[in-house]
Amino acid sequence: MARKLFGTDGIRGKANTGAITPEMALKVAMATALQLKRGNHRNKVVIGKDTRLSGYMLEPAMTAGFISMGMDVVLVGPMPTPAVAMLTRSLRADLGVVLSASHNPYEDNGIKLFGADGFKLSDDIEAEIEAKIDSDFQSLLVPSAQMGRAARLDDERGRYIEYVKNTFPKNLRLDGLKIVVDCANGAAYKVAPRILYELGADVVPIAVTPDGTNINKNCGATAPGIMQETVVKHGAHLGIALDGDADRLILCDEEGHVVDGDQIMALIARALHEGGGLKGGGVVATVMSNLGFERFLKARGLELVRTPVGDRYVVDRMKTGGFNVGGEQSGHIILGDYSTTGDGLIAALQVLSVIRLAEKPVSDVCRVFDPVPQLLQNVRTQNPVDLSTPAMTQAMRAAEEKLGDTGRILIRKSGTEPLVRVMAEGDDAALVKKIVEELCAVVESLDAAPAQAASA
């Protein structure tokens, strides 16, 4: 069953337009309740959000939808996405909802759905929810006496903080480490500095004053410049940058050099492998992960299993293959021993445990492999682009012949934005750059073609 409303990470769009309106949020809640209500007990849903202004619009709309269908609602306010997944399981709820557009600007928002097990819902279940959105809800509303109730959870932050701290080795502390933490003016603006402080670190918090419109604005995992500058300015040992809903992590060393998701996964996987704790015989990552990462694992007899882009696909492959480390180059790190989804703070603590034991500069510890030159360029499109046209196929074939066995090419449409992402990597950086420029030119010509046809 095809999905039109749901993308690679739930429903996402411009707030107060299209799919991100109070009316649609109400219908999504009602349709989800129809799909997931189970048994005769009082079904419960946990709703969390990030710090976007539009969260205050969507939260009551979804609350009303669930209550009207007989589900109790637990409101936890601004909390990281992985915290909502954890609380869904901890509270034995039937569903978890996160209102967030992750790393996107405040004008956007989204709806992410988690099952009772804390994992994101499958594509098939999301498609079934979509099919129910146009139902005649008036005839499906529960009687007045069976309506749900809403309540706020008082200790939501404390529960999550203790859960995350318990993933850090009991015999270690962060005393003596100065850490810059960039919270992206998002969901972790209170919990992240507190976790690091309680573990003993000297914490320099930045981007911790959300106002509803500054989430991810020139800060966070997708704009790490402020973190890098602050680390150097304060003489910190490292920097931690989260995104708006804190399911993504990017680091920088004491010199301000960025450490991406591939390096983080490689570091954690090597430590687990050496300690006998790596499961599945390798790591699960997406098609975007660097070829250097794959070579690093292969040299150690480990496998890099690639999936389509999207942490849900990484998690699915981890579950079926018994892996406990997976993620994305962009910083979604899933550690199956601790969490059901990407958790930037838990991943950061696992890196910090390796740093603490190594007693070396972060620049030495976190430079795990030499990345192959890789270039990613986004082409913003105005029209639907067919990437299977003869022109595109021919251009890709020619590019692959130029790279030979020393690299690879990937062209895909974004699942959340009107973009075509063009990526190439190989040992020859100049050749990689030329190939990306040529392929982007072909995509741009395909985007322009419908407009030219319309004006003819």
Structure, briefly:
This protein has 456 residues and is α/β, with parallel strands linked by helices.
Structure commentary:
The chain is an alpha/beta fold and 456 residues long. The protein folds into three domains: 11-154, Alpha-D-Glucose-1,6-Bisphosphate, subunit A, domain 3 (Alpha-D-Glucose-1,6-Bisphosphate, Chain A, domain 3, 3-Layer(aba) Sandwich); 160-365, Alpha-D-Glucose-1,6-Bisphosphate, subunit A, domain 3 (Alpha-D-Glucose-1,6-Bisphosphate, Chain A, domain 3, 3-Layer(aba) Sandwich), CATH 3.40.120.10; 374-455, Alpha-D-phosphohexomutase, C-terminal domain (TATA-Binding Protein). Helices cover 37% and strands 20% of the residues. It is built from 14 helices and 18 strands. It has helices spanning 22-36, 55-68, 81-90, 123-132, 156-165, 191-198, 225-234, 261-274, 291-298, 311-321, 344-358, 362-365, 390-403, 429-455; strands at 11-14, 44-49, 72-78, 95-99, 108-115, 150-152, 178-182, 202-206, 238-242, 249-252, 258-259, 282-286, 303-307, 325-327, 333-335, 374-380, 407-413, 419-426. The protein has a six-stranded mixed sheet, with helices on both faces. It has a five-stranded mixed sheet with strand order 8-7-9-10-11, with helices on both faces. Strands 13-12-14-15 form a four-stranded mixed sheet, with helices on both faces. Strand 17 (407-413) and strand 18 form a beta hairpin. The longest helix is centred in the last third of the chain and has 27 residues, at 429-455.
